[in-house]
Amino acid sequence: MRYGLLLFDEPVRDTSRKIIHVDMDAFYASVAMREDPSLVRKPVIIARHPKKTGGRGVVATASYEARKYGIHSAMSAQKAYELCPHGIFVQPDFELYRQISSQMHAIFRRYTDWIQPLSLDEAYLDVTENHVNQKSATLIAQEIRTAIKQELNLSCSAGVSYNKFIAKIASDYRKPDGITVIPPKDAQAFLMDLAIENFPGVGKKSVEKMHSLGIYKGSDLYNQDELELVKQFGKMGHSLYRRARGIDDSPVKTEREPKSIGKESTFSDNLQSDSEVIKAIRVLAGKVMTNLKRKQKHGKIVVLKIRYDNFETYTRRRSFPDYIKSEDELFQIALDIWEEESRTMGVRLLGITVTALESVVYETVPLPLWSSSHNERIVKKNED
Ligand SMILES: [Mg+2]
């Protein structure tokens, strides 16, 4: 039963991250209009014309004009044609979409390497630490939206919050061409009011089941017992319980796996004494470890970078058989490396990096609480 207690410990809300969800507005249809301005404000349907396919085919995207006729993605092209016979059918051009998508990512990378694409036109960005040293994720989101508009001539919507699922809900909130920021202090009230069908991951079937259980909005979900939710919805019940409380620790998972996480500091006054250097190493080790935990990564190689007064720069590296687990351990390693330096000058820059990163995989523990199908649970989920 010990593990049961572990699972049902009241979850803690981490609000330290800054996450942006960027979603292009009616992407394929907007691209078609950009390429052919005569299509602007017309009901554009991205699908091959049903007359050319003998009625087969489905709608990939419809412009906002076409949506007024009830046309939506995944609808059969034939149905769309019946709803709007004067609609303009445009064949999708995936090569062009991919090209634009990589242009979008180039814009994202000006700010962060922590980018998780969900599709060609949608991505999560973790900007907690970013390339422009901007503390406001909202300002970064605005700049990204402006760059996409100016450079790609397309519009997008953005959601800003402290985790992925709230950022995703937020980006949809003022669509098209909108931005919604949900800071930690507003999240709970926002979620309490949110219709259950707007919680990401709750499909049509689950919505019906929720309604039959009297769960219509976030506050109804909030008041459910966790064990009951898990009984009814399996693994999803567990995450719903957390989401109703604004909790989602799943990291932004990059496709190009960053190989290292590090932090460096340049000192306006060069560090002269050993104790100053040790203090700086302590601070850096703490920041790097926090960032590793946030990203759910760990590594076995530590690199200490030192730049002296005269701009000579050294990087010293140590490998270990086991993953570095704690801030103390990282501090101790960096300190050991530092102590081997025979320095004669002031230090103007220090950096600590942990490399050869791998994802932290949490152990699966058996839980004797449920029937056989529920016997295995991952205590801390590593994926979403
Ligand atoms: Mg989109």
Give an overview in words.
The chain is built from 15 helices and 16 strands. The chain has 384 residues and is of the alpha+beta class. Among the domains are: 28-93, MutS, DNA mismatch repair protein, domain I; 260-356, Dna Ligase, domain 1 (2-Layer Sandwich), CATH 3.30.1490. The longest helix is centred in the last third of the chain and has 21 residues, at 274-294. It is globular. Residues 23-24, 27, 121-122 line the site of magnesium ion.
Considering the protein shown, what is the CATH homologous superfamily of the domain at 260-356? DNA polymerase, Y-family, little finger domain
Strand content: 15-25%
Class inferred from helices and paired strands: alpha+beta
Share of residues in helices: 25-40%
Return the average pLDDT rounded to an integer. Answer: 89
Separate helix tally: 15
Q: Quick one: how many beta strands? A: 16
Question: What's the shape?
Answer: globular
Q: How many strands, which pairing sense, and closed or not: the largest β-sheet? A: 5 strands, mixed
User: Bound small molecules, which ones?
Assistant: magnesium ion
Strand order of the largest sheet: 5-6-1-7-8
In short:
The chain is of the alpha+beta class and 384 residues long. The protein contains 15 helices and 16 strands.
Summary tags:
16 strands, disordered N terminus, binds magnesium ion, 384 residues, five-stranded mixed sheet, single chain, disordered C terminus, Dna Ligase, domain 1, MutS, DNA mismatch repair protein, domain I, four-stranded antiparallel sheet, 15 helices, alpha+beta
